[in-house]
Write a structure and sequence with these properties.
Layout lengths: L2 E5 L3 H12 L3 E5 L3 H9 L12 E6 L3 H14 L2 E6 L5 H9 L7 E6 L20 E4 L7 H13 L3 E4 L2 H27 L3 H4 L4 H7 L6 H9 L2 H24 L5 H22 L14 E8 L4 H11 L6 E6 L5 E8 L4 H10 L3 E3 L1
Parallel strand pairs: 1-2, 1-3, 3-4, 4-5, 6-7
Antiparallel strand pairs: 5-6, 8-10, 8-11, 9-10
Length: 361
């Protein structure tokens, strides 16, 4: 691949363009808002000038509802040898393209499983896709050249290709992406009218659950409108669990010992099923999640503190597997939770104490 055009210079489109440009591909940027294309170009993602002839690959990075129309336009203009999209829904755009009379052999639906609660070209990074799954949904109609171009794009972005059926993909993302967004927003919405004293008690748990609730509503309306059925199915299942959990909690208020026991069993059941489901979420390098030990370090909110604690951990010969930061409300301090292999935790705690760090159990 020597040339590409990226249509839609938001987070995903600009990140892909940055990765391609950084690896020697000449990228042409287009957007319905020329200012966004100019911003992406200024970031080094490519040029906002049109290509002189046909490019190797067109990457359509627009909301799902607009994918089919844009792809059909690309094909009518003969803009590229092959065309892919990167929208988060795959079944409906393909069916809509067929209804428009588009050439399905020269089109491939794809979806990089990477993103952020931030949007727009200024949120883009060239390494956004590194190590992340990138779903490809070829069919028997897909031209081999188009599939190879898509695989080359995935490779240049240093992502991991995953081949799926389009409708199976849509059911999967309803479970692992679209429903979590709505549930995060539902929990965060409870905070809107909460007492200030309650909000000041927010800790890492509520921060983790509500992080993606900061996402742009307009973008998610586009996504959910293109995949409403599978999302509704998952939410209906969650709603059934919620109803049972509410009843179990009510039972815990009962004066009847047997009813309280039944309520506790109901709560234990959902918690244990949650444990089982969480254990299936891939961990580091796509392997089963490991049980790490947490070494919590109190740090000040000032430049260089994080770098210093990481450097001291490195001097102790300990690999940090994961990290979380919990900020203290109203204080200029926070807890850095260093996740390490259990056998390394005692030595790391001792080494950090020797270097003057305050360790919290």
């Amino acid at each position: 691949m020597r040339t590409a055009v990226v249509i839609g210079t938001g987070l995903i489109g600009t990140s892909a363009a940055l990765a391609l440009s950084g690896r020697g591909v000449r990228v042409h940027l287009q957007d319905h808002d020329p200012a966004r294309a100019r911003t992406a170009a200024a970031l080094g993602a490519g040029t906002d000038e049109g290509p002189e002839g046909r490019v190797d690959l067109a990457v359509v990075a627009v909301p799902p509802a607009h994918v089919a129309g844009v792809v059909a336009d690309v094909q009518r203009r003969g803009l590229a040898r092959g065309c892919i999209d990167v929208a988060s829904v795959k079944g409906r755009p393909r069916r809509e393209l067929a209804d428009l009379g588009g050439d399905l052999s020269q089109y491939l639906g794809t979806h990089p499983m990477s993103g952020s609660e931030r949007s727009g070209p200024l949120a883009a990074t060239a390494d956004l896709f590194e190590g992340r799954p990138w779903v490809l949904t070829p069919t028997r109609d897909t031209d081999t050249e188009v599939l190879n171009l898509a695989l080359e794009l995935v490779s240049l972005c240093r992502a991991v290709p995953v081949v799926m059926d389009a409708d199976a993909h849509d059911r999967a993302v309803a479970l692992v992406s679209h429903t979590p967004q709505l549930l995060s927003s539902l929990v965060a919405a409870r905070l809107e009218g909460a007492e200030e004293t309650a909000v000041r008690l927010c800790g890492q748990g509520i921060r983790d659950v509500t992080r993606i609730a900061a996402s742009e509503p307009g973008m998610w309306i586009d996504i959910l409108s293109a995949n409403p059925g599978p999302v509704a199915d998952v939410l209906a299942s969650v709603a059934a669990d919620l109803d049972e959990t509410v009843q179990a909690l009510r039972s815990l208020q009962s004066s009847d010992e047997g009813e309280r026991g039944g309520g506790a069993a109901g709560i234990e059941d959902v918690l244990r099923r949650g444990n089982s489901g969480r254990a299936r979420v891939p961990g580091k390098h796509g392997t089963a999640p490991a049980a790490y030990e947490v070494v919590a370090v109190l740090i000040g909110d000032q430049p260089g503190e994080l770098a210093r604690v990481f450097a001291d951990a490195g001097r102790a010969g300990v690999n940090i597997e994961d990290v979380r930061i919990e900020h203290a409300t109203g204080q200029q301090t926070g807890l850095v939770q260093l996740m390490v292999e259990p056998k390394a935790a005692p030595g790391l705690s001792a080494a950090l104490r020797e270097r003057g760090w305050s360790i919290r159990q």
